[in-house]
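Many introductory courses stop at the sequence. We go one step further.
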Amino acid sequence: MTTHHYSDLQVCVLAAGKGKRMRSNLPKVLHKVLGRAMIDHILHTVELLRPKGIAVVTGHASELVREHVGQPANLEWVIQDKQLGTGHAVKQCEKVIRDVRDVLIVCGDTPLLQVETLEKLVSEHRQSASDVTVLTANPANPFGYGRIVRDENGHVTSIVEEKDASDSERSITEVSSGIYCVRYEVLFALLHAIGNRNAQGEYYLPDIVPLALNAGQSVEAVMMNDADEMLGVNDRVHLAHVEDVMQKKIIQEWQRRGVTVEKPDTVRIEAGVSIGIDTVIQAGCYLIGSTTIGDECRIGPNAVLVDAWLDDRVNVYAFSHIQGAAVGSNTQIGPYARLRPEARLDEGVHIGNFVEVKKSVVGSGSKINHLTYVGDASIGSDCNIGAGTITCNYDGANKFVTEIGDNVFVGSDTQLVAPVRVGDNATIGAGSTITRDVPTDGLTLSERSTQKHIKGWKRPQKDKR
Protein backbone atom coordinates (compact mmCIF):
# COMPACT_ATOMS: atom_id res chain seq x y z
CA MET A 1 0.00 0.00 0.00
CA THR A 2 1.27 3.42 -0.90
CA THR A 3 2.53 5.77 1.80
CA HIS A 4 3.19 8.72 -0.50
CA HIS A 5 1.20 11.91 -0.79
CA TYR A 6 1.59 13.40 -4.25
CA SER A 7 0.14 16.82 -3.49
CA ASP A 8 1.82 18.25 -6.61
CA LEU A 9 0.44 15.60 -8.98
CA GLN A 10 -2.73 15.78 -11.10
CA VAL A 11 -4.31 12.57 -12.41
CA CYS A 12 -6.21 12.53 -15.68
CA VAL A 13 -8.47 9.51 -16.27
CA LEU A 14 -9.57 8.89 -19.85
CA ALA A 15 -13.10 7.49 -19.72
CA ALA A 16 -14.86 9.01 -22.71
CA GLY A 17 -15.00 6.00 -25.02
CA LYS A 18 -18.32 4.52 -26.03
CA GLY A 19 -16.89 1.04 -26.38
CA LYS A 20 -18.79 0.08 -29.54
CA ARG A 21 -17.46 -3.46 -29.43
CA MET A 22 -19.05 -3.97 -26.01
CA ARG A 23 -22.44 -3.77 -27.78
CA SER A 24 -24.03 -2.25 -24.72
CA ASN A 25 -26.19 0.67 -23.64
CA LEU A 26 -23.73 1.24 -20.80
CA PRO A 27 -20.53 3.25 -21.20
CA LYS A 28 -17.58 0.89 -21.33
CA VAL A 29 -16.10 2.02 -18.03
CA LEU A 30 -19.29 1.09 -16.14
CA HIS A 31 -19.01 -2.58 -17.02
CA LYS A 32 -18.06 -4.55 -13.94
CA VAL A 33 -15.00 -6.62 -13.19
CA LEU A 34 -15.48 -8.79 -10.10
CA GLY A 35 -18.32 -6.69 -8.79
CA ARG A 36 -16.84 -3.22 -9.38
CA ALA A 37 -17.19 -0.99 -12.44
CA MET A 38 -13.90 -0.51 -14.28
CA ILE A 39 -13.97 3.19 -13.44
CA ASP A 40 -14.23 2.29 -9.74
CA HIS A 41 -11.15 0.08 -9.95
CA ILE A 42 -9.05 2.78 -11.58
CA LEU A 43 -10.29 5.58 -9.31
CA HIS A 44 -9.57 3.49 -6.24
CA THR A 45 -6.03 2.91 -7.51
CA VAL A 46 -5.20 6.53 -8.31
CA GLU A 47 -6.79 7.80 -5.09
CA LEU A 48 -4.18 5.78 -3.19
CA LEU A 49 -1.58 8.19 -4.58
CA ARG A 50 -3.36 11.01 -2.72
CA PRO A 51 -2.91 13.42 -5.64
CA LYS A 52 -3.88 17.07 -5.66
CA GLY A 53 -6.80 16.27 -7.93
CA ILE A 54 -8.35 13.83 -10.38
CA ALA A 55 -9.87 14.87 -13.70
CA VAL A 56 -12.15 12.33 -15.36
CA VAL A 57 -12.77 12.82 -19.08
CA THR A 58 -16.16 11.50 -20.15
CA GLY A 59 -18.02 11.58 -23.41
CA HIS A 60 -20.55 8.93 -24.33
CA ALA A 61 -23.38 8.78 -21.75
CA SER A 62 -21.33 10.96 -19.41
CA GLU A 63 -24.35 11.50 -17.16
CA LEU A 64 -24.42 7.77 -16.35
CA VAL A 65 -20.74 7.79 -15.39
CA ARG A 66 -21.18 10.88 -13.22
CA GLU A 67 -24.25 9.45 -11.52
CA HIS A 68 -22.38 6.24 -10.77
CA VAL A 69 -19.22 7.87 -9.39
CA GLY A 70 -20.85 10.78 -7.57
CA GLN A 71 -18.85 13.88 -6.68
CA PRO A 72 -15.73 13.21 -4.59
CA ALA A 73 -14.19 16.42 -3.28
CA ASN A 74 -11.00 16.19 -5.34
CA LEU A 75 -12.59 15.11 -8.63
CA GLU A 76 -13.28 17.33 -11.65
CA TRP A 77 -15.50 16.23 -14.53
CA VAL A 78 -14.38 17.06 -18.08
CA ILE A 79 -16.48 16.52 -21.21
CA GLN A 80 -15.08 15.41 -24.56
CA ASP A 81 -18.01 16.19 -26.86
CA LYS A 82 -16.43 14.67 -29.95
CA GLN A 83 -14.37 11.49 -29.82
CA LEU A 84 -11.27 12.79 -31.60
CA GLY A 85 -8.62 10.65 -29.93
CA THR A 86 -6.70 10.38 -26.69
CA GLY A 87 -4.64 13.52 -27.30
CA HIS A 88 -7.80 15.53 -27.82
CA ALA A 89 -9.28 14.01 -24.65
CA VAL A 90 -6.37 15.06 -22.44
CA LYS A 91 -6.38 18.55 -23.98
CA GLN A 92 -9.92 19.04 -22.61
CA CYS A 93 -8.41 19.00 -19.10
CA GLU A 94 -6.45 22.21 -19.65
CA LYS A 95 -9.03 24.35 -17.88
CA VAL A 96 -9.16 22.25 -14.70
CA ILE A 97 -5.44 21.51 -14.15
CA ARG A 98 -3.45 24.19 -12.37
CA ASP A 99 -0.33 24.57 -10.23
CA VAL A 100 1.03 21.04 -10.27
CA ARG A 101 4.41 19.57 -11.09
CA ASP A 102 3.29 16.62 -13.20
CA VAL A 103 0.20 15.15 -14.83
CA LEU A 104 -0.37 11.39 -14.65
CA ILE A 105 -2.54 10.14 -17.53
CA VAL A 106 -4.27 6.77 -17.13
CA CYS A 107 -6.98 4.85 -18.99
CA GLY A 108 -10.37 4.15 -17.45
CA ASP A 109 -10.58 0.65 -18.92
CA THR A 110 -7.43 -0.85 -17.29
CA PRO A 111 -8.80 -2.26 -14.02
CA LEU A 112 -5.71 -4.42 -13.30
CA LEU A 113 -3.43 -1.40 -12.87
CA GLN A 114 -1.72 -1.31 -9.45
CA VAL A 115 -0.75 1.74 -7.40
CA GLU A 116 2.80 0.40 -6.92
CA THR A 117 3.29 0.54 -10.69
CA LEU A 118 2.10 4.14 -10.83
CA GLU A 119 4.39 5.06 -7.95
CA LYS A 120 7.30 3.55 -9.87
CA LEU A 121 6.37 5.58 -12.96
CA VAL A 122 6.10 8.89 -11.10
CA SER A 123 9.24 8.24 -9.06
CA GLU A 124 11.44 7.37 -12.04
CA HIS A 125 9.96 10.21 -14.08
CA ARG A 126 11.03 12.67 -11.41
CA GLN A 127 14.40 11.08 -10.67
CA SER A 128 15.35 11.28 -14.36
CA ALA A 129 14.05 14.86 -14.62
CA SER A 130 12.17 13.73 -17.73
CA ASP A 131 9.63 15.89 -19.52
CA VAL A 132 7.63 12.93 -20.83
CA THR A 133 7.72 9.40 -19.40
CA VAL A 134 5.69 6.55 -20.83
CA LEU A 135 4.86 3.36 -18.97
CA THR A 136 5.73 0.37 -21.18
CA ALA A 137 5.38 -3.40 -21.07
CA ASN A 138 6.65 -6.47 -22.85
CA PRO A 139 3.57 -8.68 -23.29
CA ALA A 140 3.58 -12.14 -24.82
CA ASN A 141 1.34 -10.83 -27.60
CA PRO A 142 1.87 -7.15 -28.51
CA PHE A 143 -0.94 -7.05 -31.08
CA GLY A 144 -3.12 -3.98 -30.83
CA TYR A 145 -0.71 -1.88 -28.79
CA GLY A 146 1.40 1.09 -29.83
CA ARG A 147 5.03 0.04 -30.35
CA ILE A 148 7.93 1.78 -28.62
CA VAL A 149 10.45 2.76 -31.27
CA ARG A 150 14.00 3.38 -30.05
CA ASP A 151 17.17 4.55 -31.75
CA GLU A 152 20.49 2.68 -31.82
CA ASN A 153 21.32 4.07 -28.36
CA GLY A 154 18.08 2.79 -26.87
CA HIS A 155 16.43 6.20 -26.57
CA VAL A 156 12.70 6.45 -27.29
CA THR A 157 12.03 8.16 -30.62
CA SER A 158 8.32 7.53 -31.16
CA ILE A 159 5.26 5.44 -30.37
CA VAL A 160 3.55 3.98 -33.42
CA GLU A 161 -0.05 2.80 -33.20
CA GLU A 162 -0.78 -0.72 -34.45
CA LYS A 163 -2.97 0.49 -37.32
CA ASP A 164 -0.25 2.89 -38.51
CA ALA A 165 2.77 0.62 -37.95
CA SER A 166 4.93 -0.89 -40.67
CA ASP A 167 5.74 -4.61 -40.70
CA SER A 168 9.11 -3.99 -39.04
CA GLU A 169 7.49 -1.80 -36.37
CA ARG A 170 4.90 -4.49 -35.67
CA SER A 171 7.74 -6.90 -34.87
CA ILE A 172 8.69 -4.75 -31.86
CA THR A 173 7.57 -6.37 -28.60
CA GLU A 174 7.92 -3.39 -26.24
CA VAL A 175 4.61 -1.55 -26.22
CA SER A 176 3.05 1.50 -24.71
CA SER A 177 0.53 0.98 -21.95
CA GLY A 178 -1.15 4.27 -22.83
CA ILE A 179 -0.17 5.60 -19.40
CA TYR A 180 2.06 8.68 -19.16
CA CYS A 181 3.59 11.01 -16.64
CA VAL A 182 4.23 14.42 -18.21
CA ARG A 183 5.63 17.61 -16.75
CA TYR A 184 2.75 20.07 -16.50
CA GLU A 185 4.74 22.96 -17.97
CA VAL A 186 5.17 21.16 -21.31
CA LEU A 187 2.03 19.01 -21.56
CA PHE A 188 -0.53 21.34 -23.10
CA ALA A 189 1.89 23.00 -25.50
CA LEU A 190 2.64 19.52 -26.84
CA LEU A 191 -1.05 18.65 -27.05
CA HIS A 192 -1.86 21.80 -29.01
CA ALA A 193 0.89 20.87 -31.50
CA ILE A 194 -0.47 17.38 -32.26
CA GLY A 195 -1.81 16.82 -35.76
CA ASN A 196 -4.30 14.27 -37.01
CA ARG A 197 -2.65 13.01 -40.19
CA ASN A 198 -3.18 9.32 -39.55
CA ALA A 199 -5.45 6.49 -40.62
CA GLN A 200 -8.20 7.48 -38.20
CA GLY A 201 -7.93 11.27 -38.45
CA GLU A 202 -7.54 11.42 -34.67
CA TYR A 203 -5.24 13.28 -32.30
CA TYR A 204 -3.09 10.59 -30.70
CA LEU A 205 -1.59 11.16 -27.27
CA PRO A 206 1.56 9.16 -28.23
CA ASP A 207 2.39 11.87 -30.78
CA ILE A 208 3.64 14.07 -27.93
CA VAL A 209 6.79 11.87 -27.89
CA PRO A 210 8.32 12.95 -31.24
CA LEU A 211 7.07 16.50 -30.67
CA ALA A 212 8.87 16.63 -27.32
CA LEU A 213 12.06 15.24 -28.85
CA ASN A 214 11.95 17.75 -31.69
CA ALA A 215 11.61 20.51 -29.11
CA GLY A 216 14.71 19.28 -27.30
CA GLN A 217 12.75 17.84 -24.38
CA SER A 218 13.59 14.55 -22.69
CA VAL A 219 11.54 11.38 -23.12
CA GLU A 220 11.94 8.29 -20.94
CA ALA A 221 10.23 4.90 -20.70
CA VAL A 222 9.57 2.88 -17.54
CA MET A 223 8.84 -0.84 -17.90
CA MET A 224 6.10 -2.29 -15.70
CA ASN A 225 6.87 -5.57 -13.94
CA ASP A 226 3.63 -7.33 -14.88
CA ALA A 227 2.33 -6.76 -18.40
CA ASP A 228 -1.15 -7.91 -17.35
CA GLU A 229 -1.64 -4.59 -15.55
CA MET A 230 -2.02 -2.73 -18.83
CA LEU A 231 -4.72 -5.05 -20.18
CA GLY A 232 -7.57 -2.95 -21.48
CA VAL A 233 -11.14 -3.96 -22.23
CA ASN A 234 -12.55 -3.47 -25.72
CA ASP A 235 -15.22 -6.17 -25.82
CA ARG A 236 -16.80 -8.78 -23.56
CA VAL A 237 -14.17 -11.35 -24.44
CA HIS A 238 -11.54 -8.96 -23.06
CA LEU A 239 -13.80 -8.29 -20.08
CA ALA A 240 -13.96 -11.98 -19.20
CA HIS A 241 -10.21 -12.37 -19.65
CA VAL A 242 -9.40 -9.39 -17.42
CA GLU A 243 -11.80 -10.68 -14.79
CA ASP A 244 -10.15 -14.10 -14.93
CA VAL A 245 -6.70 -12.56 -14.45
CA MET A 246 -7.91 -10.42 -11.57
CA GLN A 247 -9.68 -13.36 -9.95
CA LYS A 248 -6.53 -15.46 -9.92
CA LYS A 249 -4.57 -12.61 -8.36
CA ILE A 250 -7.22 -12.00 -5.69
CA ILE A 251 -7.47 -15.68 -4.74
CA GLN A 252 -3.70 -16.02 -4.56
CA GLU A 253 -3.50 -12.96 -2.34
CA TRP A 254 -6.09 -14.42 0.07
CA GLN A 255 -4.20 -17.71 0.09
CA ARG A 256 -1.03 -15.83 1.07
CA ARG A 257 -2.99 -14.17 3.88
CA GLY A 258 -3.98 -17.48 5.43
CA VAL A 259 -7.20 -18.47 3.65
CA THR A 260 -7.64 -21.97 2.20
CA VAL A 261 -9.39 -21.91 -1.18
CA GLU A 262 -10.21 -25.37 -2.47
CA LYS A 263 -10.58 -25.78 -6.23
CA PRO A 264 -9.82 -22.07 -6.82
CA ASP A 265 -10.74 -22.27 -10.50
CA THR A 266 -14.37 -22.90 -9.44
CA VAL A 267 -14.59 -20.09 -6.87
CA ARG A 268 -15.60 -16.44 -7.34
CA ILE A 269 -14.31 -13.91 -4.82
CA GLU A 270 -15.14 -10.34 -5.78
CA ALA A 271 -12.89 -7.36 -5.22
CA GLY A 272 -14.82 -5.96 -2.23
CA VAL A 273 -14.75 -9.17 -0.17
CA SER A 274 -12.81 -9.56 3.09
CA ILE A 275 -11.85 -12.95 4.61
CA GLY A 276 -10.26 -13.85 7.97
CA ILE A 277 -7.39 -16.26 8.60
CA ASP A 278 -7.84 -20.04 8.71
CA THR A 279 -11.13 -19.77 6.86
CA VAL A 280 -11.82 -22.48 4.27
CA ILE A 281 -13.63 -21.67 1.02
CA GLN A 282 -14.78 -24.85 -0.70
CA ALA A 283 -15.45 -25.57 -4.36
CA GLY A 284 -18.06 -23.60 -6.27
CA CYS A 285 -18.52 -20.80 -3.72
CA TYR A 286 -19.49 -17.28 -4.80
CA LEU A 287 -18.48 -14.48 -2.44
CA ILE A 288 -20.08 -11.34 -3.84
CA GLY A 289 -20.17 -7.61 -3.13
CA SER A 290 -19.04 -6.38 0.27
CA THR A 291 -19.15 -9.80 1.95
CA THR A 292 -17.02 -10.01 5.10
CA ILE A 293 -16.05 -13.35 6.63
CA GLY A 294 -14.34 -13.77 9.98
CA ASP A 295 -11.62 -16.14 11.16
CA GLU A 296 -11.89 -19.94 11.14
CA CYS A 297 -15.08 -20.07 9.10
CA ARG A 298 -15.95 -22.81 6.65
CA ILE A 299 -17.96 -21.98 3.55
CA GLY A 300 -19.27 -25.20 2.06
CA PRO A 301 -19.54 -26.22 -1.59
CA ASN A 302 -21.64 -24.01 -3.88
CA ALA A 303 -22.64 -21.57 -1.16
CA VAL A 304 -23.45 -18.03 -2.29
CA LEU A 305 -22.75 -15.04 -0.03
CA VAL A 306 -23.86 -11.59 -1.22
CA ASP A 307 -23.11 -8.53 0.93
CA ALA A 308 -23.07 -10.85 3.92
CA TRP A 309 -21.32 -10.40 7.28
CA LEU A 310 -20.07 -13.49 9.12
CA ASP A 311 -18.36 -13.43 12.50
CA ASP A 312 -15.71 -15.99 13.51
CA ARG A 313 -16.16 -19.77 13.32
CA VAL A 314 -19.31 -19.78 11.22
CA ASN A 315 -20.00 -22.97 9.30
CA VAL A 316 -22.03 -22.52 6.12
CA TYR A 317 -23.00 -25.87 4.62
CA ALA A 318 -23.46 -26.67 0.95
CA PHE A 319 -25.83 -24.77 -1.35
CA SER A 320 -26.82 -22.15 1.21
CA HIS A 321 -27.58 -18.59 0.10
CA ILE A 322 -26.88 -15.60 2.38
CA GLN A 323 -27.69 -12.09 1.19
CA GLY A 324 -27.55 -8.85 3.17
CA ALA A 325 -27.55 -10.80 6.44
CA ALA A 326 -25.34 -10.71 9.55
CA VAL A 327 -24.31 -13.94 11.28
CA GLY A 328 -22.84 -14.24 14.79
CA SER A 329 -19.94 -16.44 15.80
CA ASN A 330 -20.14 -20.22 16.19
CA THR A 331 -23.27 -20.40 14.06
CA GLN A 332 -24.23 -23.20 11.67
CA ILE A 333 -26.21 -22.59 8.50
CA GLY A 334 -27.60 -25.10 6.02
CA PRO A 335 -27.33 -27.07 3.90
CA TYR A 336 -29.81 -25.47 1.50
CA ALA A 337 -30.63 -22.60 3.85
CA ARG A 338 -31.46 -19.06 2.80
CA LEU A 339 -30.83 -15.90 4.79
CA ARG A 340 -32.46 -12.92 3.12
CA PRO A 341 -31.72 -9.20 3.66
CA GLU A 342 -31.89 -7.90 7.23
CA ALA A 343 -31.66 -11.33 8.80
CA ARG A 344 -29.58 -11.07 12.00
CA LEU A 345 -28.36 -14.16 13.82
CA ASP A 346 -26.69 -13.98 17.23
CA GLU A 347 -23.92 -16.38 18.21
CA GLY A 348 -24.42 -20.12 18.38
CA VAL A 349 -27.55 -20.20 16.22
CA HIS A 350 -28.41 -23.27 14.13
CA ILE A 351 -30.24 -22.72 10.83
CA GLY A 352 -30.90 -26.02 9.09
CA ASN A 353 -31.87 -27.38 5.70
CA PHE A 354 -34.56 -25.58 3.70
CA VAL A 355 -34.99 -22.84 6.30
CA GLU A 356 -35.57 -19.28 5.12
CA VAL A 357 -35.05 -16.26 7.38
CA LYS A 358 -36.02 -12.77 6.22
CA LYS A 359 -35.80 -9.45 8.11
CA SER A 360 -35.68 -11.23 11.43
CA VAL A 361 -33.50 -11.41 14.54
CA VAL A 362 -32.67 -14.82 15.99
CA GLY A 363 -31.22 -14.86 19.50
CA SER A 364 -28.15 -16.74 20.69
CA GLY A 365 -28.35 -20.52 20.93
CA SER A 366 -31.68 -20.79 19.11
CA LYS A 367 -32.30 -23.57 16.60
CA ILE A 368 -34.42 -23.55 13.46
CA ASN A 369 -33.38 -26.81 11.91
CA HIS A 370 -35.89 -27.89 9.26
CA LEU A 371 -38.25 -26.66 6.55
CA THR A 372 -39.25 -23.38 8.17
CA TYR A 373 -40.01 -19.80 7.11
CA VAL A 374 -39.27 -16.97 9.55
CA GLY A 375 -40.10 -13.49 8.27
CA ASP A 376 -40.48 -10.15 10.07
CA ALA A 377 -39.85 -11.81 13.41
CA SER A 378 -37.89 -11.46 16.61
CA ILE A 379 -36.84 -14.73 18.24
CA GLY A 380 -35.20 -14.81 21.66
CA SER A 381 -32.35 -16.93 22.98
CA ASP A 382 -32.34 -20.74 23.33
CA CYS A 383 -35.51 -21.30 21.36
CA ASN A 384 -36.35 -24.39 19.32
CA ILE A 385 -38.51 -23.79 16.26
CA GLY A 386 -39.95 -27.05 14.94
CA ALA A 387 -40.04 -28.30 11.36
CA GLY A 388 -42.61 -26.71 9.07
CA THR A 389 -43.20 -23.66 11.24
CA ILE A 390 -44.29 -20.49 9.44
CA THR A 391 -44.59 -16.92 10.60
CA CYS A 392 -47.58 -15.74 8.63
CA ASN A 393 -46.40 -12.15 8.25
CA TYR A 394 -48.38 -10.95 5.21
CA ASP A 395 -52.12 -10.39 4.87
CA GLY A 396 -51.97 -9.51 1.19
CA ALA A 397 -51.42 -5.81 1.82
CA ASN A 398 -49.30 -5.31 4.94
CA LYS A 399 -46.46 -7.03 6.82
CA PHE A 400 -46.78 -7.80 10.54
CA VAL A 401 -44.30 -8.82 13.21
CA THR A 402 -44.02 -11.99 15.27
CA GLU A 403 -42.27 -11.68 18.64
CA ILE A 404 -41.00 -14.82 20.39
CA GLY A 405 -39.40 -14.67 23.84
CA ASP A 406 -36.52 -16.69 25.31
CA ASN A 407 -36.47 -20.46 25.79
CA VAL A 408 -39.58 -21.03 23.68
CA PHE A 409 -40.38 -24.40 22.08
CA VAL A 410 -42.53 -24.24 18.95
CA GLY A 411 -43.85 -27.61 17.79
CA SER A 412 -43.71 -28.77 14.21
CA ASP A 413 -46.13 -27.49 11.59
CA THR A 414 -47.13 -24.42 13.60
CA GLN A 415 -48.47 -21.27 11.96
CA LEU A 416 -47.89 -18.04 13.88
CA VAL A 417 -50.34 -15.51 12.42
CA ALA A 418 -48.83 -12.06 12.98
CA PRO A 419 -49.08 -9.75 14.75
CA VAL A 420 -48.58 -12.11 17.67
CA ARG A 421 -46.36 -12.41 20.76
CA VAL A 422 -45.08 -15.55 22.46
CA GLY A 423 -43.92 -15.22 26.05
CA ASP A 424 -40.73 -16.61 27.60
CA ASN A 425 -40.54 -20.34 28.33
CA ALA A 426 -43.75 -21.02 26.41
CA THR A 427 -44.38 -24.30 24.57
CA ILE A 428 -46.62 -24.47 21.50
CA GLY A 429 -48.00 -27.84 20.52
CA ALA A 430 -47.39 -29.30 17.06
CA GLY A 431 -49.86 -28.47 14.33
CA SER A 432 -51.17 -25.34 16.05
CA THR A 433 -52.42 -22.19 14.39
CA ILE A 434 -51.65 -19.32 16.75
CA THR A 435 -53.68 -16.14 16.22
CA ARG A 436 -53.53 -14.62 19.72
CA ASP A 437 -50.66 -13.79 22.08
CA VAL A 438 -49.22 -16.77 23.97
CA PRO A 439 -48.59 -16.39 27.73
CA THR A 440 -45.27 -17.19 29.40
CA ASP A 441 -44.67 -20.77 30.55
CA GLY A 442 -47.15 -23.57 30.04
CA LEU A 443 -48.43 -25.29 26.89
CA THR A 444 -50.50 -23.59 24.21
CA LEU A 445 -52.10 -25.40 21.32
CA SER A 446 -55.01 -24.82 19.01
CA GLU A 447 -57.98 -27.19 19.08
CA ARG A 448 -57.43 -30.14 16.80
CA SER A 449 -59.95 -32.08 14.70
CA THR A 450 -61.00 -35.56 15.83
CA GLN A 451 -58.88 -38.40 14.47
CA LYS A 452 -60.91 -41.15 12.80
CA HIS A 453 -60.10 -44.59 11.39
CA ILE A 454 -62.16 -46.17 8.58
CA LYS A 455 -61.64 -49.90 8.72
CA GLY A 456 -61.17 -51.71 5.42
CA TRP A 457 -60.75 -48.58 3.32
CA LYS A 458 -58.41 -49.03 0.34
CA ARG A 459 -56.72 -46.56 -1.93
CA PRO A 460 -58.05 -46.41 -5.49
CA GLN A 461 -56.07 -48.48 -7.98
CA LYS A 462 -55.27 -47.66 -11.60
CA ASP A 463 -57.04 -49.74 -14.20
CA LYS A 464 -54.19 -51.81 -15.72
CA ARG A 465 -56.27 -53.28 -18.55
